[in-house]
Every structure is written in C-alpha cells, then in structure tokens.
TrEMBL record:
Xref: InterPro entries: Glyco_trans_20
Family per similarity comment: Belongs to the glycosyltransferase 20 family.
This protein's name: Trehalose-6-phosphate synthase
Length: 457
C-alpha cells in the first residue's frame, strides 16, 4: 500500500491534534500511522535548514525545516502573503510584487524539494497543499522524482483577466501543471484555472484536464468539509460549561449574532460591521434585542495592510457603539483574541444568526461549523456570502452580496423575523450537506481520484 506524504507550509504541533479549523484539521483523518507530514517548522533561524528535523507521534512522522529570517520575509511575508494572497482574493490593489520576493519564494520551494527528495519512495502519494508551495511539484520533477504528485489549493483561484496582473502568471500556471492532479474547492475555481491554463500558458484543456509540455494534469473540484458529528457533540457539551453560562447571562435574553474570522481584509469585516449598523438604523425594533459578537483573531501582524485593518475596525466599533449603545446595552462586542474551538462551538450553538460574509473565500469552514453546531429543533440562520466557496453547497443559507451593507442588514432582519418552520426547513437542508461533505469524505474523494490518475510514462 502506497504511503501518503502530506506537504504543507505549516505542520501541526508534534504530537498534538490541530486546534483550529482549516487545512490541518481537515487532514487529520488521513494522517494515520505510516504517514509522513513535511513542511516549515514555523521557526526562523540564522539560515534555512538543509536537513529536516524528524519526529514521530501516534505513528505519524513529522519532518520540518526552519527558515532564515530573510527567506521568511521573502517567501512567507512577501510573495505568499503580500502577492499571492491578495491576488487570489481579487484584491489586486493590495498586491505588492517584488522580483526579489519571487526569487525567495522559488528558492524556499527549491530548498523544500531538496530536503524532501531523500525521504521519498517511488510509490509514495505526495500531496502538496496551498499557495505557498505551488512550485514544489516542478522542483521535485527537476530533481528526478517520477512518482505521484498531487496539489490542492485551499484559497480561491482567479480568472485569467485577474491572474495576468501577476508578472510571472504563466510560470505559476505551468507549475500547477507539474502535478498529476490539481484540485480546487469549487467548479468555478476549476473553470478559472482551465481558462488561465489555456489563455496564459497555451495549454490544451478539456473539462477536467490540462495538457502542457507533454504532461497531462487532471483537474477537479473537491469541496473541503469538517468532522460535523464531532463538532456537533462539542457544541452540545459546551452548553454545560461556565463560559457559555456567563455568555448567556450577559445576553439577558437577547438574540446572539456571531461571526468568527481571522483578522483579514478578505473576510469583509468593515462591510459586515457597516451592515450591522444599517440593521440598527433601519430596523429600530431590534434595539436592545440583539447582541453581535465579532471575533477577529489577530493574524499576520507584521503585514502593514493587517495593521491598517485593525485600526479601521477599532474605529468602526467605537463609532457604532457610540451611536447605538444605551446604559444597559452595548450592541457590538468585538474581540481580537483567539477563542478555543469548544467555546466557539458553544457560541455557535446558542446563536440565532451565523454571519459569514467574506469578500472572497476558498471554502469557509466556519459556515459549516455553524450549521453543525445548531439545535435542529430550534436552529439559527446562516447568512452567507455568495463569494464563499461554501455557497456552492449551502444553498439554503440566506445568500448575500458582502459588498452591499444594506443587503447584509436585510438578511439579518429576515433571519431575526424568520418563523421556526422555515428555520427548520433551511437547516435540515444545510445539515444534510454538511454531514455528507465531511473532512474525511474530502480526503477520500481526492485520494481516490489521485490514485486513479495514470502515471506519466
């Protein structure tokens, strides 16, 4: 049986299960004994390591490399998060391109390939994850690796008219064609990639493959999910904790609206706060009857755009509460510290509205966690951006354009006024989608397709 090799920018803390949503949590279901997980240690050193540190926990081997401060700046802060992240989230005005950063990005991927290559076996299934490591497959091919290489992009992909803003756009497309299977969350992202491969790289494309430079790459949509049953159990248990009891007491019977995100400009946080302000301005019947909790955990604090966003949200929070607060009611609660998953599950369970309105998102697992956490007998309502990948599956959410604060306000008002029977009908449909499209199902569907792809001669 082939060994699975997972390659990602960050590797879960050795010996501990992942504590947050996203890539690491989704892959836990296939990180079984015998798996090798390779990536950056999350640490910087005087120079980038050439040989990985290897440890083992629960039968899984973890191999990690430290990066030099210079490589970290160019590879991670620079090209990955100041260039690719805004580009793939349609924020070309925030994109900063530097040839030095791009050279550093390629150099780190080359270092990763050189450190990983001696650990690989010919029959391994090497599954590379996310935008940090797009060139890794091509670097492994250059070193002579002929085994199976797969790639999955956890963020959106953009159409060629947007991608071509990036000077090395054609090179990036070519790198994605070095894999045997390249996967995306949604059919829209697949179509955008196929169009980019055709228009920018001159590839021959079909509805599910790309042929470039004599190599055929299979392409598919694989929507990522969560362990819905486990999250639902966590949400029920959380109701008995002192934390949730204190939250419930502080609400004094008010309906809870909850949002939980990283502090990131792709999440549409200013538009969301403005939408809540429009709700209070246009529908005064909700005054003193709702409380909005926005959790925006700090991230990438060494990136200037994130510092600016935090200042803007601080200002908006003060302005909104200043306009609408009473001595016994503060409508918006805004916090930037991380909330532990069990507590978050409990907050979702008791919320009347889950407000998930990113400007662009590859999938957005918070939307699925909110659905999984709900009480089917008295469920809350999911308000979801049409530009989240999850909207392709969760069609019975209240779908909104996140660029329109009034549309967000209208959806919140509709959710607060929605009769129980409609809430239950919508939730039943959403729950079915979330419980069928789990993290384990995502991994299984990708790996089944990966193993079925014929190896290049």
């Amino acid at each position: 049986m082939a060994r699975l090799v997972i390659v990602s920018n960050r590797v879960p803390t050795l010996g501990r299960r992942a504590q947050a949503g996203g890539l690491a949590v989704a892959l836990q279901s296939v990180a079984s004994p015998g798996t090798l997980w390779f990536g950056w240690s999350g640490q910087t050193a005087t120079k980038t390591a050439t040989e990985p540190r290897i440890g083992e926990a629960r039968g899984v081997s973890y191999a990690t490399l430290d990066l030099s401060a210079s490589d970290y700046g160019q590879f991670y802060v620079g090209f990955s998060n100041a260039t690719l992240w805004p580009l793939f989230h349609f924020r070309t005005g925030l994109m900063r391109f530097s040839r030095d950063d791009y050279a550093g990005y390629l150099s780190v991927n080359r270092s990763f390939a050189e450190a990983l290559m001696p650990l690989l076996r010919p029959d391994d299934l090497v599954w590379v994850h996310d935008y940090h490591l797009i060139p890794l497959g091509e670097e492994l091919r250059r070193l002579g690796y002929k085994g199976r290489l797969g790639f999955f992009l956890h963020i959106p992909f953009v159409p060629p008219a947007v991608l071509q803003v990036l000077p090395p756009a054609a090179e990036l497309v070519r790198m994605l064609c070095a894999y045997d299977l390249t996967g995306f969350h949604t059919s829209r992202f697949v179509q955008d990639f196929l169009a980019s491969a055709r228009d920018l790289a001159g590839a021959e494309v079909t509805e599910n493959s790309v042929r470039l430079d004599g190599r055929e790459t299979a392409v598919g949509a694989f929507p990522i999910g969560i362990d819905a049953a486990a999250f639902a159990r966590t949400a029920v248990r959380a109701l008995e904790t002192g934390y949730i009891a204190r939250v419930r007491e502080s609400l004094q019977g008010r309906a809870l609206i909850v949002s939980a995100d990283r502090l990131d400009y792709s999440k549409g946080l200013p538009n969301r706060l403005e939408g809540f302000g429009r709700l209070l301005a246009r529908f005064p019947q909700h005054h003193r009857k709702v409380s909005f909790l926005q959790i925006a955990a700090r991230s990438r604090e060494d990136v200037a755009e994130y510092q600016s966003l935090r200042r803007e949200l601080d200002r908006m929070t003060g302005d909104l509460n200043g306009r609408f607060s009473h001595f016994d009611w503060v409508p918006l609660r805004y916090m930037t510290q991380m909330v532990q998953r069990p507590r978050l599950a409990g907050l979702f369970r008791m919320a009347r509205i889950g407000l998930v309105t990113p400007l662009q998102d590859g999938m957005n697992l918070v939307a699925k966690e909110f659905v999984a956490a709900q009480d089917s007998e008295d469920p809350g309502v999911l308000v979801l951006s049409r530009f989240a990948g999850a909207a392709e599956q969760l069609r019975d959410a209240l779908i909104v354009n996140p660029y329109d604060p009034d549309e967000i306000a209208d959806a919140m008002h509709a959710a607060l006024e929605m009769p129980l029977e409609e809430r239950k009908r919508r939730h039943d449909s959403l729950r079915e989608a979330v419980f069928q499209g789990t993290a384990a199902q995502f991994c299984a569907s990708y790996l089944d397709a990966f193993e079925a792809v014929p190896l290049a001669a």
